[in-house]
Design brief:
The protein is mostly helical. The chain has helices spanning 2-24, 30-56, 60-80, 87-104, 107-112.
């Protein structure tokens, strides 16, 4: 849960940084800059919901964690490649994603997130 909380905070910080940069610098494409800021903010909120679900022991969070980490791994692999590779960014994304994937399959996490309720409300 701590790894995901840190990922949510990092996404929120990145979104905040990009939003501030919208007003400080002149982006080459305003539409792309706004879209990237929005995607980062939505991602931060979604990972925050996953953290709350993990804290509550909801079973749906295991699948959500796997999807989020797969996306982080895809971006990390892309950061190692291309015309302007950024291995530092790739490592920062890859290491926590692998740790989270390993931890989500531990017995203690599986047991604590096995709760299924008849209540349709998640939050």
């Amino acid at each position: 849960m701590a790894v995901l909380a840190l990922e949510a905070l990092a996404l929120a910080a990145a979104a905040g940084y990009f939003i501030v940069e919208l007003f400080v610098e002149q982006p080459s494409s305003l539409a792309n800059a706004i879209a990237l800021s929005a995607v980062l903010a939505i991602g931060a909120v979604w990972v925050g919901f996953i953290v709350v679900g993990l804290y509550r022991g909801q079973a749906w969070t295991r699948a959500a964690v796997i999807v989020i980490q797969a996306l982080f791994i895809a971006v990390a692999v892309g950061s190692f490649q291309g015309p302007n590779p950024r291995p530092d960014v790739g490592a920062v994304l890859l290491i926590p994603a692998v740790i989270a994937l390993i931890l989500i399959f531990t017995k203690s996490v599986m047991v604590s997130t096995a709760k299924r309720t008849d209540d349709s409300r998640t939050f």
